[in-house]
Amino acid sequence: MKKVKGILQGQVIKLLEKVEAKDGTRVAVIFEEDHQQAKERQLRLIRSGFDMGRIISQSKEELHER
User: Fold this and answer.
1) Is residue 41 part of a domain?
2) Is residue 66 in a domain?
3) Do 7 and 16 touch, CB atoms closer than 8 A?
4) Neighbouring C-beta atoms of residue 33, cutoff 10 Å
């Protein structure tokens, strides 16, 4: 398997280097996300919070009651 970078132009991917492969060769394409876009997406996720289920105890004392 060889990793080659390219640029999407319309619906065509232009490879940035020459490769020797037959027409019809199957490929997998991974779209790299811009660092800033990834950062903003993760910050939105953090700010929206996570549903961790119901709260089992309300205080430290309740947690340690026996």
Assistant:
1) yes
2) no
3) yes
4) 10
